[in-house]
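Hey Z.,

So I finally got round to the magnesium ion thing we talked about over coffee. Here's the setup:
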Amino acid sequence: MTNTNNLDNNLSNLTLVIPAKEEAGCLYRVLKELQNFNFHKIVVTPKNTSFPKSWDFPNIKIINQSKIGYGNALLEGIENVKTKFFCIFNADGSFNPNEINNMLKLSINYDFIFGSRYLKTGKSDDDTFLTLIGNYIFSNIGRFFFNVKLSDILYTYVIANTSKFKELEVKSNDFRFCVEFPIKMEKKKFSYIDLPSYERSRISGKKKVNEFIDGFKILCEMIKLFFSYKNK
Ligand SMILES: Nc1nc2c(ncn2[C@@H]2O[C@H](COP(=O)(O)OP(=O)(O)OP(=O)(O)O)[C@@H](O)[C@H]2O)c(=O)[nH]1
Ligand SMILES: [Mg+2]
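And the result:
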């Protein structure tokens, strides 16, 4: 793959794990933008998803997930990562790849580096009132009940140390992944930080998160984890 950005050599230590479900209207443009970056890339799609033959993206690994769900896509993608670090990178165009370099620089000092839309220069063009309130509530539950020091717990634009992530033994196959991961990371006392991130609007298509159903599942997961750690 070509590297037109003259980026740091250490970027090749990074694999982007790109979950993509029904993103036909976005994925081509996302992969096109990513062509400028010298990262490994793994796209994870639901079963029986195929791409037009005219798409010419060499060196991108495509995996059809064996189960269903966002968390499952990530877990199966991460299983295939061979680099020291990986980055969860959405296929809807909302993550700006220009932020990765700054996040990756911090991997010298931290095991996990999270983006946050709610820090100083962070912003979201994609948030609705409901998602804004939901993120605020869940980030505060994370902070008060689990001591997770993240201002945007559900965003999940994150660079992770691959072997440390595997030690967490994250199991969630759905959006519960977004809280199980940081809560277990805090409990293991791994090092982490969050940085401002600017979330762009999704390019097209529909969001896969259902604020009420997934919000409820996320809340149940937090309650379950709270009692499982309390009883230890
Ligand atoms: N492979 C796979 N990818 C998924 C699944 N569910 C969601 N995704 C992808 O995960 C990423 C995040 O999902 P989104 O629907 O964008 O969630 P969101 O960012 O909270 O919602 P938006 O407001 O639309 O941006 C997107 O790239 C989706 O295509 C799934 O079941 N399987
Ligand atoms: Mg999105």
